[in-house]
Structure formats: C-alpha cells, structure tokens
Amino acid sequence: MTPDMYLVLGIVLAGLSIPSMLSAISDQRAPRASAITVLIAGGLILLAIQTQPGGYRLEDIPDVFVRVVAQFIP
Question: pTM of the full predicted structure?
C-alpha cells in the first residue's frame, strides 16, 4: 500500500468513528470500539505522514483522495 492509501483509509476511518463515539456518549456508554478505531485511524495517518517523502500539506489532501479513488475506477 502507498502512503496515499494509508492517509485516505485513516481519514475515512476517523470520520466513520465519530458518529459511533457520539452515539455511545449520548447513551452514557463507554465508547470503547470507537476509541480503538480512532487510535487505528491515527496510526494510519501517522504512518502515511512518516513514509511520504516531504509529508503532506493540508491543500494536498483533496488531490490524494482523487488519486486513490482513480486507482479503483477502471
């Protein structure tokens, strides 16, 4: 996997874990599963930043998403 894929997967996982975390908090439960998912997402984002030469800038993220999605579209 490329650093771009790590970054996109990490951002998507982090975004999907937010509703789960809010649901657990509103039901007064411990958000264990969503907290683990956030840690995994953070690890993927950190791995992507460390393995990409020069790192990523904020304005690069939309281009990264397009490149990754374009790899899967025939």
Answer: 0.88
Chain segment 16-59, per-residue pLDDT in tens: 999 999 999 999 999 999 999 999 999 999 999 999 999 899 99
47: its two tokens: 């791995």
Q: Quick one: residue 34, left, alpha or beta (phi over 0 = left, psi -120 to 50 = alpha)?
A: alpha
CB 52 within 8 A of CB 17: no
User: CA torsion sign, 33 to 5 to 3 to 14?
Assistant: negative
Give CA–CA dist 20/15, Å, rounded: 10
Domains of the chain, by residue range, sit at 3-72
